[in-house]
Amino acid sequence: MSQRTALSGLHDDFIRRGLRLPHLRLLVALKSTGQMSGAASNIAITQPAASRLMGELEKIVGAPLYERHAKGVSLTLSGSLLADKAHAMLRQLDDARNEIRELVDGVRGHVRIGAVTGPALEIVIPALRKLRDAFPEIEISVDVETSDKLIDSLLSRDLDFYIGRLPHGIDARAVRMRCIGPEPLALITHVNHPLTQLRNVSIHQCLPYDWVMQPPNGLMRREVETYLLENGYPIPERILSTSSLLLTLGIISETNAIAPVARSVAEFYSRRSGLGGNIALLDMVDEIAISPYSIVLPSGTELSPAARRVLSALELQPEHAP
Predict the structure, then answer these.
(1) Do 189 and 60 reside in the same domain of the chain?
(2) Phi-psi bin for 232: left (phi > 0), alpha (psi -120 to 50), beta?
């Protein structure tokens, strides 16, 4: 037998010899009270039963664990060592009980959510601020992506749920949805763009410029193009395609290009210094609104208690209640 195999067999040696939790509880109580009668009372057994347990424990350990004297009992070095280990182990079991209770109550756990950019700024950030104060033991991961990528993560169970839309071609039976509301868009460009000097800008005035939008299969791009066509506008002739918000902001801050983005995103970045400080919202005649976004959950799967708590916090954002 190898040394590693021999050592692995010793991991539960005391257990195989008959060690039970009452032995450890009694030993801890005995160190605390210094009296066999007091230790027995602490764990709700009789003194004779306590003496028998201590006798069993000494046989299991193979060493004397306590000594009697006129004032009661005191632990030997071996007894004190085992009592300290037992106390630590019992505390760990109490900690495990508390952590399990927190998991069941939804105040501990790991929750993975996704969101498209607008709701991430408008709904997720305020909810996270409140959750961090109220439930600091809940670990929350947030994936900000387009809906077509979020749905893949949801169906592969890499997300508990996401805020966005259901892309075309996805079997609706695979998900559950809770509608939040429409997403108004804004057209943004740099602060010195010729159109920023005008009020009541029309879509026709924007069309001669480059537009920065998602790639052709992007859900937001299809929504914008559908809105334009349904309202009698042509598709912009010059479109720069990217799914990167950072690249979009960089392009419009350095060129005369125009980009349709969620209004919440436009307002967030236009208020910031640095790159965002060079971004302005065009004063449009008509508000552009695309299809509502929803909370999308996997069908047939129950959320963990922690995930349900996070979901409730998102739904309770007053300005976005369904």
Answers:
(1) no
(2) left
What band does 273 get if pLDDT is binned at 50, 70 and 90?
A: low
- Over the stretch 33-64, which tens digit does the pLDDT of each residue have? 999 999 999 999 999 999 999 999 999 999 99
Tell me, yes or no, whether 61 and 192 share the same domain: no
Please give the Cα distance from 48 to 320 (Å, whole number): 67
Do 82 and 192 share a domain, yes or no? no
Element (H, E) at 181: strand 175-190
Residue 265 neighbours by CB distance under 10 Å: 25
Pairing of strands 138-144, 109-115: parallel
Cα–Cα distance, 45 to 29 (Å, whole number): 12
Distance of CA 236 to the CA centre of its chain: 39
Q: Decide: 121 and 268 in contact? Cβ < 8 Å.
A: yes
Pairing, β 161-164 against β 288-298: antiparallel
189-223 residue pLDDT tens? 999 999 999 999 999 999 999 999 999 878 888 88
